[in-house]
Amino acid sequence: MLKKVLFAIMVSFVMLVLVACGNNAEESSSEAEEPSETGGESSEAEEENESIDTLSVGFVPSRDPDEIITATEPLKELLKKEMASLGYDIGEVDITVGTNYEAVGEALSAGTTDIGLIPGGTYVLYDDGAEVILTATRAGLSIDSDDAKDWNDNKPTEASDEQATSYRALIIAGPSEKGQELAEKVNNGEELPFEDVNSASWAVMSSSSPAGYIYPALWLDENYGKTITDLDNVVQSDSYGSAFARLAQGQIDVMVTYADARRDNEDKWQEEFDGEGSIWDDTNVIGVTPGIYNDTVSVSKNSEIMDDDLKSAIQQAFINIGETEEGKEVISIYNHEGYQKAESSDYDNERKAQEMVKSFN
């Protein structure tokens, strides 16, 4: 009897051990199936980057097109690198320079260019097909006056340490006899009558260029009740460089341009444009426009690849590029020093300017 009791106790003990082992095995199996906070086979897999064959970038010809193409070549790899970190693998970055400002706006509207670095005036002209995502910041200048004589008394114009979100357009008289005549009156504190202004030959940019057309047209309207189409002798230049070359050689008397353009063309004035003296000695400001909101980075609303996620990535990529030394060197071709997020409403004043120009014509 005692042996039977002992045998029963031993059987019971073995059963308990087996049950315990089974429970431990189940718990271990259960723990293995639970997702690990640090990864493992059951953790959420890292999402792969989206692939884009070609991302096209268009620049306006505010400088010599070959110069722009050369200077922006490093942007291709910079943009690929930044976009990869933001979820997009770009096969090729295609950079082109439009034949004029309108060509880039039209390409954005048509969806044949994905990204355009264009002035505010060009953007508002084509905002049915283009969307602004960034505005450029630039270094300010040592002179920021409404008075043309101040620019002449304090030249040369230098860069300042202050960042600016707007810039001036200047009406500049060259070394021709008529140009010097107009400059002398301004520097003597005399008012320029429209007859004097109209007797000069002018060079302007395309009609969507803020500094090269729109704001100088407003200057003429504010001072004389006239516009560029009222001038008797006007030629349209394909770039500021070609306008400076004409000015240096006396082929035109007056040109319109952005405020730091003489700094950009200081060396070329004598070396390439055959100016007799320095650009500061040979030229004078005869008119100053109000501030113009800076250039945009805009994207196409009609590009086949463009969506909100891609827009956000492009926006952040350009901001990141503008914060690196290599990136700053690339974007300096347009005198950009960085970028900040922009809204369409930032350019409402440009829209008003465009409407005024249209009413003049």
TrEMBL record:
Q: Which of UniProt's keywords are assigned here? A: Signal
Q: Which organism is it from?
A: Oceanobacillus halophilus
Q: Where is the signal peptide?
A: 1-20
- Please identify the protein, giving its name as recorded: Phosphonate ABC transporter substrate-binding protein
Superkingdom, taxonomy of origin: Bacteria
Tell me which SUPFAM superfamilies the record gives. Periplasmic binding protein-like II (SSF53850)
Question: Looking at the keywords, is Signal present?
Answer: yes
- For the region Disordered, what residue ranges are annotated? 26-64, 342-361
Q: Where is the composition biased (Basic and acidic residues)?
A: 342-355
